[in-house]
Design brief:
Helix content is 47%, strand content 14%. It is of the alpha/beta class and 555 residues long. The chain is elongated. The two termini are 48 Å apart.
Length: 555
Amino acid sequence: MKKLITSALPYVNNVPHLGNIIGCVLSADVYARFCRSKGYETLYVCGTDEYGTATETKAREEKLTPQQICDKYHAIHKEIYDNFNISFDIFGRTSTEKQTEIAQSIFQDLEVNNLIIEKKTKRTFCEKDSIFLADRFVEGVCPHCRYEDARGDQCDNCGKLLEPENLINSRCKICGSNPVLKETSHLYLELDKLQEKLKSWSQKSGDIGKWSRNAIQTTNGWFEKGLQARPITRDLSWGIPVPRPGYEEKVFYVWFDAPIGYISITANEREDWKEWWQNPEKVELYQFMAKDNIPFHTVIFPASLIGSGKNWTLLHHINSTEYLNYEDTKFSKSRNVGVFGDSVSDTGIHIDLWRFYLLANRPERNDSVFEWNDFIEKVNSEFIDNIGNMVNRALVYLKKNFDGEIKDVPLSDDQLKFVNDCRNDFIKVTEAIESVKIREGLRGILAIGNRGNKFFQDMTPWEKIKTEPEHAHATVSLIAYLVRSTAVALEPYMPETALKILDMMNLSNTGWEMIGSFNGLDGHKIGKPEILHKKLDVKLAEKFRKSFSGKCPEF
């Protein structure tokens, strides 16, 4: 099966922070790199989500046009993801003619299938600014949890989706005045007509594709309440035109068209895009996101595709994380609190160490927290003192005592047991990543490092070399083989580090098939060993905590 992988399209109006990065693009990158290493035909697609209220809001704030905002922040996002070594096959954007073409086509299919209705409703209208206020231009008190700064589309406190008309004490985000309700017409997608098909599909896909627990719970919650018709148009100027008479001044609601961006971004770059997006028998779709994006990918987007009647590739596996918070608060660009993607390189800490910690601390079942003390402690103790120590110790010893030559010789019972144990460990790591258990896979690699260090210590090659040099040579050669396998397994997580290990060994990465191999390099000579990564100074924790606390940076 082909592997079609997407990470949630980030809004183009902001700079992604560490939580955004681990929640979608970095997690998806690990799986995409693994799939390529396994030899699967893989396509990893992402891009910036550029239409809608969020862009109009940012344009007003920065006194730019929406297009200028999109151009500016698309470049910022791309630079950040490049710095994190995110291996997109395609990184595009939604403000394209292809996006308009495909979104309008899906809408027209839905209309032909009698799934679009028109309703006259009263929507929030700012008399001072003389405009209908889209969701994100309205703020107020959440009717569910009483959070005072809920947005018109969603409450950041309780996570519930909202309509701006339901907010208590609502206010216009532009001028602060209280909006009124004014009648307007909008088009709705009749999700209720699709409930049974959607429910049947989601239960089957959730079971076969092993959806994340929070995705299953969230989706089932929508079905239990009963799906309702949802508006798919908005009174905005920046968006995809609605191809229907009378709707010339309206555009599609961004959460109708945004997920279609995965398709259009692919179509913009690949003539064979239908081989990926209209080929469900041969393609498995894996989608990565934070938990707030779940219903749009398990209900609204598949409803649009199923309702169109076309043979679209539908979601196979959804991998949805909880939230990553910062120290004892939340990330805030406006308050300059927390680490954002554009300032990571300023710390001077190697990007692979950032990748390591975020993936080791990935919020899979509960929210997790980025803490500077924990970051430095885990990097030093769990990676550098473990994998880094094994790599350096084994290769230096091999170089110093055996001229760097790997030797295949008959093994003792203890050495054979070590080989079998390592192979079983790598089988478990492979199964974990294959099942998209990203953090579990990394934990398995760390455990293998601990096994290698213990084996070196137990076998005492520095003693054996005096009486049984062949035994000592076999021991250190086995660890060299283990280092090679570890580098290949580590590549999806820490690509530059993996390449450095293989370079030191005078080897190239030929793919996942070499994992668990403990022969075949007889007579091969490694290169010059180097320190993999220097340990981080514990004093950096306090320094960076102050730097990212909202005060002026002190790099």
